[in-house]
Amino acid sequence: MIDFHAHILPGADHGSDGLETSLRQLELAEEAGVDTIVATPHFYPQTDSFTGFLRKRERCSTELINHYHGPIRILLGAEVHMCVGLDHLKGVEELCVSGTSVMLSELSLRGYQSGISETFDRMQDDGLTPVLAHVDRYDPKLIENLFAMGLKGQVNSEPLVHHWGRRRYLNWIDQGFVVALGSDIHGTRIGYAQYTGARAFLGSRADRLDRRTGELLKTAVRLQPTE
Ligand SMILES: [Fe+2]
Question: Looking at the whole model, is its pTM more than 0.70?
């Protein structure tokens, strides 16, 4: 079972205030049966320094992996807030899940930015595979336009548990547009309850999603302790 979207790095963003929280998050993930987590701290290219982000992510992930001795395979990624021209950022591929060309890409909630589809196009031409984060949060027409360009998406657990429009996401899974499920865990309050509920709702589709995500992540390199 794969969690493709999780804020579990201690102190990297508002998802975890420190090591204790992160270790508890991983314990909850283990109890839910998760075996692979992609750690996806927020990166906002408009406001964050790129090198500063990479340094902080390195520090936080090293702290976590040196203290976590459980069975979960942790992969390093980012939730990258999309902006026009992101493809021009030197070293942008470092935001992909390590060992892959897959980038969790978050659209602005303020609506469609003109030029964003051209940016996605160029990223794809450069060999990157953007996966749209929580496609459930946006205007479905916008998302379907991006799917039509060949982009894929990740769905969050929460709307699958109690969103009145959740059948739409089943259709997107059945059409091959959605390729991953994510807890988008922040803190420990909700933990993996919604993730578990979402999988129960998805039934055999959850395993299908895992296979698709596994295919995307087949070259991924897990975090290794440095001590
Ligand atoms: Fe997130």
Answer: yes
